[in-house]
Amino acid sequence: MIINGEGHILGRLASIISKKLLEGEEIIVLNAEKIMLTGNKEWAYAKYKQRVDRASISNPRDMGPKYPRMPEEIFRRTVRGMLPFKKSKGKDAFRGLKAFVGVPKEFKDVELNNVPQAQFSDVKKGIELGEISKLLGAKF
């Protein structure tokens, strides 16, 4: 299944996709930078900035845990948190997820699906993952 991430809410889309991954489906998400987070821009940035900074605070030598800055990797990490990743069924399910910024050449002519349960209605009250990634220092 190929999903267009534009205009979807991050948490709702991730929960629906994680259920489908556990059922054995292969899922590709395009336009990951246009997935929306609801709420205040400052709150969202502070939340993700704190996660990125946590890597060097907890153990300066080890530099872990690692949290992503790129929008497709933030999305994958969100889905991973909804899977039983430490078990083999969760790892196998997570391997079935691919996410991309924009639309790659091989998916130009493919029909893209939307998830109506995860659609975002009020664009003014949200922030895109691409904006958060740029604030975190990602270059894409």
TrEMBL record:
GO CC terms, sorted: cytosolic large ribosomal subunit
NCBIfam families: L13_A_E, PRK06394.1
Statement: the UniProt record of this protein carries the keyword Chaperone: no
Keyword Ribonucleoprotein: yes
Name the UniProt record assigns to this protein: Large ribosomal subunit protein uL13
Organism: Methanobrevibacter curvatus
Family: Belongs to the universal ribosomal protein uL13 family.
Record's function text: This protein is one of the early assembly proteins of the 50S ribosomal subunit, although it is not seen to bind rRNA by itself. It is important during the early stages of 50S assembly.
Keywords linked to the UniProt accession: Ribonucleoprotein, Ribosomal protein
Residues of the signal peptide: none
Any one Gene Ontology BP term: translation
PANTHER family per the UniProt record, alphabetical: LARGE RIBOSOMAL SUBUNIT PROTEIN UL13, RIBOSOMAL PROTEIN L13
MF annotations from Gene Ontology: mRNA binding; structural constituent of ribosome
Subunit relationships: Part of the 50S ribosomal subunit.
